[in-house]
Design brief:
Four copies of one chain form a homotetramer. The radius of gyration of chain A is 21 Å and the shape is globular. In chain A, strand 12 and strand 13 form a beta hairpin. Chain A is of the alpha/beta class. In chain A, helix 3 runs parallel beside helix 8. In chain A, about 30% of the residues lie in helices and about 30% in strands.
Chain lengths: ~280, ~280, ~280, ~280
């Protein structure tokens, strides 16, 4: 896979933005591979993702800031530049359920997820063998009810040591305290096993079973302070019927959770997601 | 289409039910075309739908009761017998949106919905031309805020006169008072324009737009006293993205509503739905 | 709906195309509402769709050619300019099946399809009433086997008189002779009732039934000289099972055909489709 | 999971079959948990699956034959009896692609596939580590072009030694000779990476890419003598667009293949599939 540069930006919408940015890339001898933008009418925001071939780009990336600053200031942009050959560090938190972890590790190994995995942290030792198989470091930090706070600090410490770029909660059954959110703002991806905002909170498959819905869903979203309320990245559903027991729901749901989480993770790694307000734009 | 008889029943689950019922049909020279049952573990209920060819059946349907009574009593069954060549009467209530009405009338005319439509009632005159085109009686009963009660009584009176077997709310924008529910228990089908229980109440597409979901849904259900809480018959969803404006959601939603409502109506007509607790079994 | 201008173009891929085009629009005081492009690696082609607000655009559209010519020539572009408030003329050809026609006419009336319908032509009189209801001209031109050629000439004549921008075959059961293709190149949209390239030719639902597939499909495509082989615009499928008779397949298929055809027609009207080789790009 | 008995049968359709079979089960004190049947109008066949609780069944399964024989003969039934707590033996053949193998082994370990895996056979050593991880025997038998016949005999020998009940080709890239089909009739499950009958043969994703389809599919089927022509068990599709490169198709396809194959395997293990003619009934 050849390297490409990805410029992601958000600013108040106004005339000439596409021209200004594409001209900047062109003037410095970059070749736009793909450009996508979105004008959000409600907020008056302009959001853009430009992917370009930097082979002949005449600005050194370490000095990109300096050259782009005048444009960024003029248009009041929030922006960041990424490179596709930079592999971000993903830390995974997991409890006992292994399906999402197994799926992420397999996709990582097969090259589908272009990231590093410096650490997998779990409150249970059960998933150590699969992490070992894929040669990914695995740390067990039990989270006892009576000592939750201390455990959380240990996890934070471990994370600070490994400095991941983002966190994935691969069916991690503990609620994270606010410190995690402030250290990793818009950088913690969770998988919730329902079609949010239906069935917020605990045991969504049980809730779905009791309500008698005809499809069950899964939702990946960025974690915010309000439970199950963060910006939604991806959702999907699968049909069920009266024949499906609660166990069948759990099983069908597992297949869904894996796919929905892995899509969100891949898009995050590929710098395809922009958050605005409590929503996301996914440039696919 | 040849005629078939459909026996629908619910009773406490116990050994020998399938044998007893299929033997009853066989003994009286009926030929089972299709049998389907469901044992609900939670409630301990047995639910069954048997469709049989009554051509050589040796019991006159007017005397079916008498012959089936011993079995029904022994097993404490709730049951009903229907015939596929009996066309039930469907009354439609509609407001200004016409997409569901147009769809139902077309399917009715094309033979997909084997029912009679004695009356379409609306609080607005807008949809009279399409009802006229399909030669279906159309009555306008305005429902002014200051005189809601009187209008409701008029509608009830009109219904009593036409004696429909069931009611369909094809995007009828008024909440029905309890009298309707007691006159048509489990026989009023509504279409709600969200994937229930997400986005209960008014303006679900607006709610969905604000929440930033990645799919929008529609739900057909039997109406009960609690708003948008009745037994769900059918649901479906369609993918949306940040590119979709609120208008796009409304348009995509219309296509969904039509399909989800018409499925529910067809299954109701074909006696495929059994309600138990607040859930449905749909024998498809 | 406010007016927008849509520039569609194809040319050999090279550096600076996005910049050049967006700069052209910006320089002439147009505001880009949405830009989308695609680089096809195999053919080395660049395809782009730019939608811009022409309110303050300083070039009169009648003179757009002249101003854009230097760019078009330099980059060897094939291009066209459209305006969203120009309503293209769509002629519909239909036989006896009415579901696609009914759907198109309804969507047209409800404002979903921003086109004019100068003429509906059929080889049977059956669908005249619905065309009358929607006040769309309807001409019957029988196509007898022994006089096919003459009938085709009549149809061509009628079309020449009404000068439609494109043709829609809404389950028209006659094969069109080459003259139609040369008069309306890449402007005849057909709906084929299978997931092409499976089940080419006659009676695809029968073929699907015999083969025992688990889903049935529909495909809308531009008509070319080779039967069922033109560039595919849209496809979709629906699940079936052993319970579905051939009649059920036909009924489920009808719902699919309507939706798949109407999407293709809307995208064509909205100038979202670019054909390259035997494939399409649909900028949605 | 408690044990249940599953009776699968096919016979010419006639009156009284459901009654006769359910009465037989009831008379011998079995409790029907689920019964499902299908009457195929074209062939005049009756196909049935009865699942019953054998706890108080008064016939020893070793003598079931003797007791059921009179019924089976009278109605010319083809039938078999299975028990849910009997774990059939599944042999897997695989080449280099690992996604289906990894998925099957994980589902096996997690309890979703109630079978034994006595042997995985591959023409390449690449997938040994994952088999080792899941503690499943793995044999490498290279299949050189110049010595194909000998390799096939070795594989057959190995299979004879392990006596699997059925074979799964988890992206095994060799065509099996007729001997395999005669030893495992209707017991070899293949996954083909297209929506059959579209794109028969080699490189279906390439074919799909060239044809410009808007969805790609996968098909699991029983292997017969004609390539990619056996009875279809399950199919599914996923949407693609012009943005998807051939590599993207391959990646999206992998997710599809896993799911479609694992469903077919689970249904086979749970005795849910009946083959008739070149089609299947799947009692789900």
């Amino acid at each position: 896979m050849k390297n490409s540069a990805i410029l992601l930006l958000t600013c108040p919408d106004r005339k000439g933005l596409v021209a200004t940015i594409s001209d900047f890339v062109f003037r410095h001898n970059g070749n736009i591979l793909h450009a996508d933008e979105h004008g959000d009418e409600e907020s008056g925001l302009f959001l853009m993702r430009v992917e370009f071939d930097p082979k002949e780009f005449d600005i050194n990336f370490s000095e990109f800031d300096k050259h782009f600053l005048p444009i960024a200031q003029k248009y009041q942009m929030q922006w960041r530049l990424a490179q596709s050959n930079h592999r971000p560090k993903m830390a995974i938190l997991v409890s006992k359920y292994d399906h999402c972890l197994v799926d992420l590790l397999y996709r990582h190994k097969s090259g589908e997820l272009a990231c590093e995995i410096p650490i997998v942290i779990s409150n249970h030792p059960d998933n150590k063998p699969i992490a070992d198989f894929y040669r990914v470091p695995f740390s067990v930090i039990p989270v006892p009810k009576e000592n939750k706070r201390e455990a959380e600090q240990k996890i934070l410490g471990l994370l600070r040591q490994h400095r991941p770029d983002f966190l994935v909660l691969a069916r991690y059954m503990q609620i994270l305290p606010p410190e995690f959110l402030s250290e990793y703002p818009q950088r913690i991806i969770n998988i919730h096993h329902s079609f949010l905002p239906a069935f917020v909170g605990a045991k969504p498959y049980h809730q779905a079973f009791v309500r008698g819905v005809k499809l069950i869903g899964a939702t990946s979203h960025y974690v915010t302070e309000v439970l199950d309320d963060g910006p939604i990245i991806e959702q999907d559903l699968v049909r069920i019927s009266h024949r499906d027991s609660l166990d069948d729901l759990l099983q069908k749901g597992r297949d869904l959770e894996k796919v929905v989480l892995s899509r969100a993770v891949r898009w995050h790694i590929e710098n395809r997601i922009l958050v605005y307000g409590n929503k996301t734009v996914v440039f696919t």
